[in-house]
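Feature request, filed as a ticket because there's no other form

It would be nice if the structure record came with a short human-readable summary line next to the tokens. Right now we just get the raw output. Example of a typical job, pasted below so the devs can see what we mean:
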Amino acid sequence: MSEHRDGVPEKYLAGFLARFRLGHYWIDPKFAGNRARYVSQCAFVSVAMLLVLLVLDAFYQTVLIAALGASSFVAFAAPTMRISRPRCLIGGYTVGVMVGCSISTLAVLAGGWLALNDHTARIVLGSVAVGLAMFLMVTTDTEHPPGAAVSLGFVLNDWEPMTVVIVMAGILSISVIKELVRDRLIDLF
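Raw output as currently delivered:
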């Protein structure tokens, strides 16, 4: 195996770069046979998100509400995948909220104990929150990647108890809406 000038084996470098190729097509081949389904399903998620955001007030804790957009994508673009089931949607957010709130509270209580300024402490503890949320999700079978983002959002941002209610109401709404129309949805990827 030849070495690249920086000491990286060329075979490894070629394999690494190959994972970033776009492939031989720009538009998903499944789209041609399902144009109407793709358009209607994406339009439906827009309407569903509009309703959820209107009810929850989209400008309240926008960083945390933004995770709901990612959850909507998973729920409505891949409705049969395990991570879009209510157990993962709701469970992942429950883990994310619990971890984020706990670590955020710990940061406030630790105050001057950490030899870091508040900004740096939140960054360090935010990374801990993501790792802990991931661990708890994979061990409780509630894996939902936006739930880890929620844990980070609670650590990096100021929040109040109503924030928890709004975030959980949002994911519950998305889960219920998706389950009500599940039989009309197809996996788009």
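Something like this underneath would help us a lot:
The radius of gyration is 20 Å.
DSSP finds seven helices and no strands in the chain.
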